[in-house]
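Methods — Computational structure assignment.
A single polypeptide chain was analysed. Its primary sequence is given first, followed by the predicted tertiary structure written as structure tokens.
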Amino acid sequence: MSANGAVEAEVGGAVAVEGGGRRLGQQDAGCVGILTGISFVSGVDYYRGINEKYTEMVPKRHLIPPNPTILMASVDCDVYAKKLTEKKWDDVSSHLLTGVDRLVRGGADLLVIASNTGHIAVPAIEEMYPTLEILHIADCTAKAIQAQGITTVGLIGTEPTMREAYLKDRLARHGITVIIPPEHELGTIFGFIMNELGFGVFKDETRAYFAEQIKGLQDRGAAGIILGCTEIELLMENYHGADVPMFASAALHIAAAAEITAQSRSIQDFLPST
């Protein structure tokens, strides 16, 4: 639990390309493939977060704690955002598949998509690469929600994440019902993400706006709030006004990826039962 009440792992932001490590110096931990560029801010957060959590769990073998083997592929966020706003979902998936292809050819064993919205491409990825393990952000978030006995949550993210079914349906497989902000607010929320948060711009007035949205979801019956966008998590990390738990989906995703890579948990621990 963070200082702002969000259920998360403590993560920060730095960047690199790859490293090498083994759990307890014994078994091959495999290779994590991070798909980023959607936006690059989240990829930075994922790279540092997975490394930090992994090194906390795995003791040093020689001089320093080992780090996991990681590949990163970054796609063009401008093309991605254009296809999203045009609601060309197949084109979005095709664009993201170019990055996934680079990761698979590079030897990635576990795919981690550094974006809630990017999970819109999961069906296409599964069809193209049926043996590639995908750690789904909704599964990681659902497990944290279930641990608190909550079945109804509010969701704030990009407009496709809030409006379309790909994340909500996955959460429903864990028995979780999702409430989203009013229709007329969805475009405004998405605008803040694309024009400010995706570039690391975090304004007090934008934070106040998102606080209002969180309060509105609480008033409509949400017993918890999913911060369904890495950049929203960063914006609200010092927000203390929520009366219900806030679930930082990216931080939960990052922590799960580190646990799987360190072999303290398996991907099967996160999958829905239905």
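Note: Residues 40-57 form the longest helix (18 residues).
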